[in-house]
Design goal:
Blueprint lengths: L1 H16 L10 E9 L2 E9 H8 L11 H6 L1 H9 L2 E5 L2 E2 L1 E12 L2 E11 L6 E6 L10 E8 L2 E7 L5 E5 L5 H17 L2 H11 L4 E4 L2 E4 L3 H27 L7 H20 L8 H22 L3 H32 L4 H28 L4 H4 L1
Parallel strand pairs: 1-8
Antiparallel strand pairs: 1-2, 2-6, 3-4, 3-7, 5-6, 7-10, 8-9, 11-12
Helix pairs in contact: 1-10, 1-11, 5-10, 6-8, 6-10, 7-9, 7-10, 8-9, 8-11
């Protein structure tokens, strides 16, 4: 039985540590619509790096996308984007017209800004959206929609699993928006390999204690539960604080700096498993670095720039989703670790070799993010 548990545990750790995902902010686009009678004014912010991957903006292949290169591809950008957005009212499509092209800067880089207008046959009471941007090349892409109509704001999230959304413009549903952002919170942490590896680095020694220069198994699950509860509570409290502050734009930090520190936190947490320095009150580590991880979580909501009421709903849903996703990881990882804590393979291989693996991968992330370079092609 323990052999089977260890095999499953090792497979989980191997999958995470061998991932070629380098932990940058996921691909998002931001679609804002303002409805006045039967006319819709739209603004669509799409990351230049994503457009370059899809339709090749970098004309001279020098690794830089200039305004001239973007301007030369205005028609291609508009055609590519608008062909992947279908908006209908009462089953009749709304016509669209491109009005302007701009470039704006978000927390994670430069975005093409497509300003357009749409004309519907009648004054819409409900709208049906079908969104297909980048889904064929990036299954992790998300489209974040914000609609303003008669002093009300509604939001929705497009994904490969939910490319179609229908919104009733006569009423708003805070509960629907809450559930949408809660689902996105779960998804966000499950694809956030840096956040997952930080959690695993904290959890690996949770079923052990340091004695006589080596890790030894704890005697009771109650001791493990109290240790993990304190760590997860501290981490949750910390990133909830900074998530709220950053998403509300009271404090903003450069995305490159935040991502670099998050990668560094993973390195330090894993190194601590090899060379333990803090042997009691490890929740302090979770709290300190949780403050930084909260800024990473906030990037999606901050760039959406919602009004106060909608931001509160989105923030609450997203934060709870993050916690649910986090608790699922802990719920799967911890029982397996506790079941094999006495084995030499866990204490030496899983904790030590696993931590070395995490240090190596997170170090690559740190170098990439801090120097703004890509090592993936060279290494793999």
């Amino acid at each position: 039985m323990k052999h089977w548990v260890f095999s499953l545990f090792s497979l989980m750790l191997l999958v995470v540590c061998s991932s070629e995902t380098f932990g940058h902010k996921p691909s998002d686009s931001y679609l804002r619509l303002t409805i006045d009678e039967n006319t819709i004014q739209g603004q669509w912010d799409i990351a230049l790096r994503d457009l370059d991957h899809a339709i090749s903006l970098d004309g001279n292949d020098d690794g830089r996308i200039t305004w001239g290169e973007v301007r030369a591809r205005h028609d291609a950008i508009a055609s590519y984007a608008l062909s992947r957005l279908l908006l209908t009212e009462a089953r009749s499509p709304c016509s669209n017209k491109v009005e302007n092209h701009l470039v704006d800067h978000h927390s994670d880089g430069s975005y093409a800004v497509l300003q357009f207008s749409m004309h519907c046959p009648t004054i819409p009471k409900s709208l049906n959206f079908h969104y297909g941007l980048f889904f064929n090349i990036d299954p992790l892409h998300r489209g974040l929609l914000q609609i303003s109509h008669q002093s009300r704001t509604q939001t929705a999230v497009f994904s490969p699993e939910q490319p179609t959304v229908q919104l009733d413009l006569t009423t708003t549903s805070s509960w629907r928006e809450f559930l949408e952002f809660a689902r996105e919170g779960v998804w966000h942490i499950w694809i956030g390999y840096d956040h997952i590896l930080f959690l695993i680095s904290l959890l690996l020694p949770a079923v052990l204690w340091w004695r006589a220069g080596q890790w030894q198994a704890v005697k009771s699950f109650g001791q493990v539960f109290r240790e993990v509860l304190s760590i997860i509570t501290a981490f949750t409290l910390a990133h909830s604080i900074t998530l709220s502050v950053a998403a509300s734009e009271f404090v903003t930090l450069p995305s490159r700096w935040v991502e670099s520190v998050i990668a560094g936190s993973v390195v330090l947490a894993a190194l601590h498993n090899l060379f333990p320095m803090i042997r009691v009150r490890r929740w302090i580590v979770g709290f300190v670095f949780g403050l930084v991880h909260g800024f990473g979580f906030a990037s999606v909501l901050a760039d959406l720039t919602l009004p106060a009421t909608s931001m509160f709903v989105a923030l609450a849903g997203f934060n709870i989703g993050v916690e649910v996703g986090q608790l699922f990881i802990v719920g799967v990882f911890l029982p397996l670790a506790y079941a094999i804590r006495h084995s030499w393979t866990y204490r030496c291989l899983a904790v030590q070799v696993g931590s070395v693996c995490i240090v190596g991968l997170a170090s690559i992330w740190f170098i990439e993010r801090s120097l703004n370079i890509s090592l993936s092609n060279w290494l793999w």
